[in-house]
Design goal:
This protein has ten helices and 14 strands. The chain is of the alpha/beta class. It starts with 12 loop residues before the first strand and ends with a helix.
Length: 390
Amino acid sequence: MALNDDLPVTLPRVLIVSRRRVRKNKFVDFVGEYHLDLIVAYGAVPVIVPRVRGVHNLLDGYEPIHGVLLCEGEDIDPSLYEDGTSSVSLEEEEEIRRVHASDTAIDKEKDSIELKLANLCLERNIPYLGICRGSQVLNVVSGGTLYKDIGTELTAKLPENQRVVHVDYDNYDGHRHPVKVMENTPFQSWFQDSLEEERMEILVNSYHHQGVKRLAQRFGPMAFAPDGLIEGFYDPNAYYNPDEGRFLIGLQFHPERMRRPYSEEFDYPGCSTIYQEFVRAVTVYQKKVLHSSTPLPKQLKLNKEVENRRRSIAALSLQQENRLKQMGATVRNGSHYIEKMGLNRGRGELGRKVMGQISVEHLSDLMSFYDMMGQICSQVLGRKLDESHC
C-alpha cells in the first residue's frame, strides 16, 4: 500500500530527556512545560525519556526518532571534556559548589543518555535542538570544551565594563543581557524583524554558570555575549535547512522562557520561530524516513552488527597473516601487507567523514549493498586463500 504524503503513519516524534529532582524524599523526573507546549503547538509529539538507570541501553525502544530536544540539567561531568587548560583551584571549586549548589551535582546517568542521543543525531542527521545544557552536550560530544565556571575562568579576568552576569538568582526569570547577532546565520533569520540594522543585538535570559569554552571545529558561532561567551552556534556546512529536514543548533539561553512579565507573550517573535523551524525540520525528516527505500536500522542493533563485523574482519586479517607466513611470504611482502592495512585504516577514517555528509536514504542503501558485497568478498577471498595454500 502506498503511503499518503498528507497522512504519516505516526506524528513526528521529538525525544526529550527529563531532569531529576528530589521531592518529598523521592526522586521526581520532569520536563519544563514551555518546551512541551511549543512542540505540541507546532504539530509534533514530545516523547519524554526518563532519567532512569539503564535507559541509555534501551534507546532503540524509542524508535522511530525524528528529532531530539535536550534542555536543562546539572553540570556535565568535567572528565568528558577537560583538556588540561582549566585553572580552577580546589578552593574555587568548593566555592562554585556552594554558590551554584542546584547545578553542580554531576548526573552521570543523564550524561550517558544525552551523549548517546546527541551522537545518534550526528550519525543520522536527526534534527537536534540543544537549549542551555543541551547546547553544551552538543559541543562536548563534537569535541569542544566548557568553562567549569564562567565567573571564575572568564568574568574575573575581564575589566569591569566587559563583565556579564549570566545567572541572577534574585531576578531569575527577569534577568536579561545583550548578545551580538552574527550576520547570515539562522539566528539572524529568526530575529530579523527585531534587529536594528546597526546594532544587531537582542536581549536574552540567562540561567547558567557554565558555557562553551572552545567551540567544536565543525560549528560556527551565531551570537556572542559582551564578554565573548558564545550564546548560539550551528553547523554552517548545510546542516541548517528545515525544508530539507536539517537542524543542528545549540543555544545557551532559553527562548521558551523569554516571556514578558505576567504574560505568555514572548519578548520577540523569533523565540517561538526557533521551535517552529525545529518542528518543521522534524516533520520533513520523518517523511524522508517513511519514504526511504530501505528501512532505517535501529541504532543499537546496528552498533552490534558493526562490532560483530569488525571482529570477523579482525579474525580474517589474522587468518590472512598466518596463511601468508605458511606460504613463505618474505619479510618485505609482510611489511607491505602491514602498510596496506594501515592505509586502509586511514581510508576508513576518511570514509566516516565523507559518510557524515550523505543523506539517510543513501546511507541506508549503501549499507545494504556493501553488507552484501562484504559477505561475497569474504567468501571468495577465503576460497582463494585456501586454493593458494593447497
